[in-house]
Amino acid sequence: MNRRVPFGLWLGISAVVVLVDQLLKFVIVERFREGEQLTVIPGLFDLTLWYNRGAAFSFLAGHDGWQRWFFVAIAVVAALFIVYLLARHHQQTLFAAGLALVLGGAVGNLIDRLRIGKVVDFLLFYQGSWSFPAFNIADSAITAGAALLIVDEIRRIRTSPKEKAVDQRQ
């Protein structure tokens, strides 16, 4: 669906994601030692402090440091490309919302990599001996943004050619 939505709104949403992500990371780093956990919901959810030198699910985390700059480069290129896409498609609400969330998350984790060389993770969900890898607000925004992009694509594919023509005229 296309609406009159200013480009700056999407950048603002990205900025809010970055601010919330960085603020919460700052609080966690100031109050926790690495590996320390605070149970929030027993048997389900803890706040904790973990550092991730890799990417999602600690991909490449065990390497000797080159991956920091590799992930920095990927994040910078991705952020620039997303800003370009937002500038071109800011009227496509669902698509732009997804891009804005992904951009905010990518920049949030990029700041960590540039500032301390690793990403701060602090949300830990678990059940018994199983646990999901710790993550952060930036990761959550990237995941939510990706989900919106998938929904947008499914909606686009399902739109008939006749509806597409009407949608493009608006």
Essential attributes:
alpha+beta
Description:
The chain is α+β, with helices and mostly antiparallel strands. The protein has one domain (7-52, 63-159). The protein is built from five helices and four strands. It has helices at 7-31, 66-89, 93-116, 137-158, 161-169, and strands at residues 37-41, 45-52, 119-127, 130-131. It has a four-stranded antiparallel sheet with strand order 1-2-3-4. Strand 3 and strand 4 form a beta hairpin. Helix 1 runs parallel beside helix 3 and helix 3 runs antiparallel to helix 4 (137-158). The longest helix has 25 residues, at 7-31. It is globular, with a radius of gyration of 18 Å. The model has no long low-confidence stretch (mean pLDDT 88).
The sequence of SSEs as H and E is HEEHHEEHH
Please indicate the percent range of residues in DSSP E strands (runs of 2 or more): 5-15%
Mean pLDDT: 88
**CA-based shape:** globular
Q: How far is the first residue's CA from the last residue's CA?
A: 9 Å
Walk across the major sheet and give the strand order.
1-2-3-4
- The total domain count is 1
Structural class per helix/strand content? Answer: alpha+beta
**Helix share bin:** 55-70%
Low-confidence segments, given as residue ranges, are: none
Number of strands: 4
